[in-house]
Amino acid sequence: MFVHTVYFWLKPSLTVEQRMTFVDGLKSLISIKTVRFGHFGKPADTDRPIIERSYSYALVVAFDGAAGHEHYQVVDTHDQFRKSCGTFWDKVVIYDSISSDP
User: Could you give the domains of the chain?
Assistant: First the structure.
């Protein structure tokens, strides 16, 4: 399994309409055919010193393997998300991981 995790720090000045466009974009990403599991959301209301909660939204998508992730990166849906929402964030951090033996 290949897991692609993305954290977005949205610009505070975004309008409600822009935020709705962003959320609709996240919904479109989890509908890409090679996505086996998709989730997006805001930081949970947890309060421990080790937890990073400064981001605005997280996106987690899982694929059967690296080939599924490669497909996800080049489909029109992903390109449209970057084009329509790419100016909405100040910062984005991406973590990719793949299943491995211990």
Answer: 2-98 (3.30.70.100)
